[in-house]
Design goal:
2 copies of one chain form a homodimer.
Chain A lengths: L13 H14 L12 H8 L3 H13 L3 E4 L2 E5 L8 H5 L6 H4 L2 H9 L16 E3 L11 H15 L13 H12 L10 E4 L2 H12 L5 E6 L6 H6 L3 E8 L2 E2 L1 H10 L4 E4 L13 H14 L3 E4 L24 E6 L11 E4 L2 H15 L4 H12 L2 H27 L5 E3 L7 E6 L7 H7 L2 E5 L12 E5 L5 H22 L1
Parallel strand pairs in A: 3-14, 5-6, 5-8, 8-9, 9-10
Antiparallel strand pairs in A: 1-2, 4-11, 6-7, 10-11, 12-13, 13-15, 14-15
Pfam family, one (chains A, B): GntR
Keywords (chains A, B): DNA-binding, Pyridoxal phosphate, Transcription, Transcription regulation
Organism (chains A, B): Aminivibrio pyruvatiphilus
Chain lengths: 494, 494
């Protein structure tokens, strides 16, 4: 006989409690194939529940293959293949997955630190981390976004949970086009493809153009997470030295002269990792070089909105009458990353090719989040949020620059003074050999090591400081710790 | 002087109205570079708003590059590059995007019907469409999902809008592992990778293993949207004829003997497009062949949950002690597609490689939707929804099969009798040449033409009927129309 009690307060529906308990007994062999379960009426009486509750539980057991049901008679336990033992599960695969994988995947896998496949870890308690470029969750506009989500749900109904347009939600593309208009870029919704964040945008562009042996020019240092992708696609990387005013354009021009170049990748604003912003003449000459040599330009404007001091400089895309520029934007670095919404803006001929790759790669992005974001923009929340972020981060950046001046001797390091964004680049003076990671750890502070932003071996030691998720007090304390750590290296020297 | 009025009722924030109106005047030249705007106090008095409202508007104009601001003095209009004219925008790109694209992208683009990059069109008014495999939006559990979303928002806070784990939300992976357990598959959350739907899952697997010249075996006919992907990755396609009881295993074995095969792709339940389900012995022999020849098996179980009649058959993955099977599941074909959540389950060595590809391809999927879905599962909504779907679609399928028997002569066509899912495959008898699309259109009914599910030219005419988004009345009327349309072909013959 079946003996068990239902728990009124566990929050699990009663029919589910019944089916789970019965399934457990079948798995452990207390109920065996051929055993007959009580009729719905009998079990309902026994457990003091409605017959329909038991019927639902039996239906579930049937649909899971635990019992055979026949109209009018009690369910009979079926024979199911035994579950493999845990020991069996943990043993080696009969396949060598390195041989199943392509060399391109194997390379990416071997060079990816394991932590990259997990959520980036929080710093240990008591540490201050300048390591990651992530918005401060304390600044997420939770309530406004939730309101927009709720309103979309009420007003737009089931279309929010259906398939969407592979190019992305039309209302959001229009809001983005309008937003780009305020930066001097004239595009329509048809020239925009919504992507799952900026990384996805880069992946789609590389996937579109990649053939082994093609060459892509990048700033050196550059965004660390594009380098493994370039290698994965079999592309050659031409590193163009980054000077104080941006990519060295003489070097770029020489490279264009020597052989075919297939893409130039640049971050004109608050470059990652250096924080450098190029000026208008630099942008004009860069576009001119690309025009003369017929090279498409990928403008990564991941922090376009985060210009909070200095003169405004127009995006390269705003001058792009020849439609050579593929512009990449994202909400992740000014709003929050969790909507996974970035975009590409380019000539419709380019966008259509990218849209086909997205279509066969994953059909379409989630409508619900895009619809909520479109409302967030059209109702003015986005602009207000940007203004707030400018106020907050202008002060944080000023605090950081002042603290650096106080805590770090100019004989130890030089650093950039960004007009926006979150990133400061420290270039360390020559020093005796030092285990930098250990030395920073001794002061419970961390920063992104510079070599991760270079394809080849860099000269000198660098750190990228991200102030994106630290408040002013944390920034000041963190930089004091950096000062003490660096002192251990350089004062030992002196 | 600036003359305009604010609109109390337009819903647009006042500061935004002010910045928009001023920006418009700058764009049209009414305000020119060098012009000085009124002080915040003066404009605030004039418009009867608070000074901070004007200050916010000026801040916005500054951040958009329209004005220069200096503390204490009025803003001055800056010179901005003129927006390119519409005529300039529409002209040709200076680049030939076919030459920028790789041949693999070009092929995909040229062979993709243009409509595939847009949302699939709704059928014209008055039509009945059996064409698309999409859940009926009338059955979406809107309220329960919205409740789960709201509860997640209240209880989980900012982590919902941050970056997530590239492998997917842990709670959801656990819920999926538990769900798979009820189908006899024993996996942990570490053996699961959440994907952006099943198409993304297929793309990741192919991306992992693809090298030009490798060979993938598929059922013939098979899922139409995997064929362009296989070609895009340069893979050879080995079409294995599908018989009434599934893929012809003798042919598969012969192909394995002749040369290296690198993947077998199969849909054991309610196969797309035929609706055929293989039996236990067929599954065992399929796995045995893969084991003997060392070939990984991609089991696409896109409708695993939709078994609503007949005996339960266990997934191939449940017998996979050698970890050769990569299992693909999705919520899109039983719940709704809008969460864009599918998954892959495989040996951890395989999952880690796939996770690295996802990580560099787009970082991580949206936490919010996954967290809501995890709640939807753990609170029992998913199981109850499945039971409901079984009741609804069992009746719809019975209705469809009865209607086919009434309306379509066995001399015109033969069709499958699926035990679950949404798909029926019609194989038409030989007929005089006919423009099938036209003939169906004359009765305002549509079905998916069979040739889209074959890599090579099929023999004979087939149609895939999807009953996924039609109710019983629509199914009956639609099949009557099919009968009349087919009559025009076959009675002309007789």
């Amino acid at each position: 006989m079946i003996l068990f009690e239902l728990d009124e307060n566990c929050g699990k529906p009663k029919s589910r409690q019944i089916s789970d308990l019965l399934a457990d007994r079948m798995k452990t062999g207390l109920l065996k194939p051929g055993d007959r379960l009580p009729s719905t009426r009998k079990l309902a009486d026994l457990l003091r529940v409605h017959r329909s509750t038991v019927a639902l539980a039996y239906q579930t057991l049937w649909s899971l293959g635990f019992v055979d049901l026949q109209r009018g008679s009690a369910p009979v336990v079926r024979s199911r293949a035994p579950l493999p033992e845990a020991s069996e599960r943990e043993r080696e695969s009969a396949l060598d997955w390195d041989r199943v994988s392509s060399p391109a995947t194997g390379d990416l896998y071997r060079h990816a630190p394991l932590r990259t496949v997990q959520r980036s870890p929080s710093p240990p308690r008591g540490w201050i981390s300048f390591e990651y470029l992530r918005m401060d969750p304390r600044l997420f506009p939770m309530e406004h976004f939730r309101t927009c989500l709720g309103r979309a749900f009420r007003e737009e109904g089931t279309s929010l949970l259906g398939y969407g347009d592979p190019r992305g939600h039309e209302g959001l593309r229009e809001a983005i086009a309008a937003r780009m208009g305020t930066h001097g870029i004239s595009v329509t919704a048809d020239e925009i493809l919504i992507t799952n964040g900026a990384q996805h945008a880069l992946d789609l562009v590389l996937r579109m153009m990649a053939e082994p042996g093609k060459t892509v020019a990048v700033e050196s240092p550059t965004y660390g997470d594009i380098l493994p992708l370039l290698r994965h696609y079999g592309l050659n990387i031409a590193e163009i030295p980054l000077k104080e005013d941006g990519m060295d354009l003489d070097t770029l021009e020489n490279i264009c002269r020597k052989g075919p170049l297939h893409l130039v990748y640049t971050m004109p604003n608050f470059q990652n990792p250096t924080g450098i912003t190029t000026d208008q003449p630099h942008r004009e000459r860069l576009l001119d070089i690309c025009s003369r040599f017929g090279v498409p330009l990928l403008e990564d404007a991941f922090e376009e909105e985060m210009k909070y001091s200095g003169r405004v400089v127009l995006p390269v895309k705003s001058m792009d009458t020849g439609h050579r520029v593929i512009y990449c934007g994202t909400f992740s670095k000014v709003l929050f990353p969790g909507a996974r919404v970035g975009w590409l803006a380019a000539h419709p001929e380019c966008i259509r090719r990218l849209a086909v790759l997205r279509r066969y790669g994953e059909l379409s992005p989630p409508v619900l989040l895009q619809a909520a974001l479109a409302r967030f923009c059209s109702e003015g929340h986005f602009e207000r949020h940007i203004s707030r972020m400018h106020r907050v981060y202008r002060k944080r950046m000023q605090t950081a620059l002042a603290a650096l001046k106080r805590s770090i001797s100019p004989e130890w390091a030089a650093w950039t003074r960004p007009d926006g964004g979150y990133l400061i680049w420290l270039s360390m003076a020559p020093s005796p050999p030092a285990d930098w990671e250990d030395i920073l750890a001794s002061e419970k502070v961390s920063a992104a090591p510079g070599y991760t932003f270079y394809s080849s071996e860099p000269t000198g030691v660098h750190f990228r400081l991200s102030i994106s998720s630290l408040d002013e007090e944390e920034i000041e304390e963190g930089i004091r710790r950096l000062g003490r750590a660096f002192g251990k290296v350089y004062e030992r020297k002196g």
